[in-house]
Write a structure and sequence with these properties.
Length: 210
């Protein structure tokens, strides 16, 4: 089962949701792996790299989750970061050619993109373009549960649905005691999106399809 994880924007918690989901699946006995084709970061930020967080959850080496040459110490979209560093800017085909999953293939292969659906991932494409080339089993969209989520999801889901995908939507940081969070979830439900409000709910949905 290949799952592509997309966020509505950066800093919405894609990596946290992915790591928590994969850790939970692994604890339940499923084989899992994670990949991030490219990543960039602020070198002054002491938070662990996305690949490190995902590697800790799956038990893999960080260098297998994201290749060192696709890890850019500039807080920009990866192709922009590569250009700023004077490095070759990868194409989508480069990223696809570099994508290697364990052998034998795990039951759940989780691929995390960067930023939002239209954030540049390569010189010639974004997360949606990569997703179309990969043809995953499922797409997960992670959004912050607070103010702005309805607009963010409307913009993020449109290009995915245009390509025939019906993503599973996760409202990260959802607080059932927060009136706005509850109202956002209800509004989305009433307008054709049934959001998941916990990692446990996402794990349950994935288990049904493995």
């Amino acid at each position: 089962m290949l799952i592509v994880c997309v966020g509505t924007a950066t800093e919405v918690g894609k990596t946290w949701v992915g790591a928590a989901t994969l850790h939970a699946l692994r604890e339940r006995g499923y084989s899992v792996a994670a990949r991030k084709p490219a990543q960039s970061f602020d070198p002054t930020d002491d938070h662990p790299l996305d690949a490190t967080v995902l590697a800790d959850a799956t038990g893999e080496a960080r260098e297998r989750v994201c290749l060192p040459e696709r890890t850019y110490p500039v807080a920009m979209a990866p192709p922009m970061a590569a250009a700023a560093l004077g490095l070759p800017v990868p194409t989508l085909q480069d990223l696809l050619d570099e994508l290697r999953w364990p052998d034998p293939l795990p039951q759940v292969c989780w691929l995390e993109t960067v930023g939002g659906p239209r954030s540049p991932l390569a010189a010639d494409g974004d997360a949606v373009d990569l997703l179309v080339r990969l043809a995953p089993s499922r797409v997960v969209v992670v959004a912050d549960a607070g103010l702005g989520v309805i607009n963010a999801l409307g913009l993020s889901l449109a290009p995915l649905r245009d390509h025939g995908y019906d993503p599973m939507v996760v409202l990260n940081r959802f607080d059932e005691h927060d009136d706005l969070h509850r109202r956002n979830a209800q509004w989305l439900h009433d307008h054709g999106v049934d959001p998941l409000v916990s990692v446990a709910a996402l794990v349950t949905e994935i288990e049904r399809e493995i």
